[in-house]
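Changelog-adjacent note: as of this version, every example in the card shows the full chain rather than a window. The one below runs 510 residues end to end.
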Amino acid sequence: MTVSRVLAFPGSYRDSLLLLGATRAMQDSEDVHWASAAMATPAVVADLEGRGFAPDSLDGADANALVLAVEAVADPAASQALDRGRALLFAEAGRDDRDEAARDQPDPRTVGEAARLLPAANVAVVSVPGPYAAIAAHSALTAGLHVLLFSDNVPVAEEVALKRRASRLGRLVMGPGAGTAMLGGVGLGFANAVGPGPVGVVAAAGTGAQEVMTLLDRWGIGVSQVIGVGGRDLSADVGGLMARDAVRALDADPGTEVILLVSKPPAVEVARTVIGASRDTPVVAACLGMSAPDGRLAGADLAATLEGGALRVAEILGRPAPDLGASQGHEAAIARVGAGRTAVRGFFTGGTLCYEAQVILSQALGPVYSNIPLHPDLALPAPDGAHICLDLGEEEYTKGRPHPMIDPAARREIMREQAFGADIAAVLLDVVLGYGSHPDPAGEIAGTCADIVATGAAVVCYVLGAHGDRQGLGRQRATLAEAGAIVTDSAAQAARTAAAIAGRAIAGCA
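Full-length structure tokens:
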């Protein structure tokens, strides 16, 4: 029997990052099947009613109403979960770290009022439901601020209008759906604790930005700025409006010696325009899966992987980089993988890493199916025995629950359902550290990894992180290694290792 409970708090707006934290707190019990902290937008209300919550329990709730909903095995567990969510959300709202003079001021009700209270601020982080995000971003531009638009579900036409206006004003609109940036040494969104250096990153891919910034940090190179521009920026519809301005800004930055452009395959003419925005600073384009006969695009070095882009940057700077060939442990894994195991299954929290893995696996093993496929004909459902890579951060997996970087429980559940097939040679995983991510993501999946290894399959993990990240890069890697996983030094190396294990298994079955 499942008990459902819901609470609504009118006029109690909370941003999406705080809501994600509350959802995680509510789910922190084995007796809780499902929980959600959200604003009562029409889509959220429809989802709750679709799950069986009574419509009259949400009467009068609008987009400024906070809703806590939970499904649990019994009433005590449901009530306790609601109490945890309410305590976190209202404790945060009641906390006041301002000085005495500031406390005498009424709370700001608009972005402009907030900017006047913080005259030194120059960036606004917008994290509101998509239908309202463009309005908030325009308000921030009017207040003279750059914008990190964390929100997604913003129509393309509104994105273009925002970015055209920002360009005229000499401001950046990073997003929509921009989860990562580092400006002046300050990380925004899902960023990592990396050191300063001479590389400026412009990224139309959040975990792509994190991968290259942490690789460069671990190699002792570092970054000057990381500017996320949103996944659609280099499309023909948007035209690279912000990527172009970001490249211009980095070209004029005396602390930037090389610019690294990160993207899934862009519109070629848009990429040419963006690269051409740099007059004096060399550009490396890490455009996943994209190739050119001479290895160059509009005069820039072209890399088909994130790892390849970072390696080329190190070469230009004359800095040493590690040998990222075969990973240790894969030969032993090949020897013990059971007969008949030929497939790779990838369960990713980072969408860009999922895409990069498909590029590498498809070159080595053939077609790879995915919910974010390289080609439309490789969309799910997949045939029996196919190679599959899932981006578990996509909306079909995060609707009503936190992103798996914040709450690894969802991935653990999916792994339990899909990672134990008798045809699986290698399970491929990423673990993303940094600001905003779970405090112990490796610990959350280590038991499941050990169980998979015990069945005769290999588990290949990559920990994306910097030595300064609070989760402890070394500790996270050690936790996975102790569970029997092969732990690699880059996401691309993890994909190559999984391909080597499955490829040898396939050859053995031929």
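Structural remarks: The radius of gyration is 23 Å.
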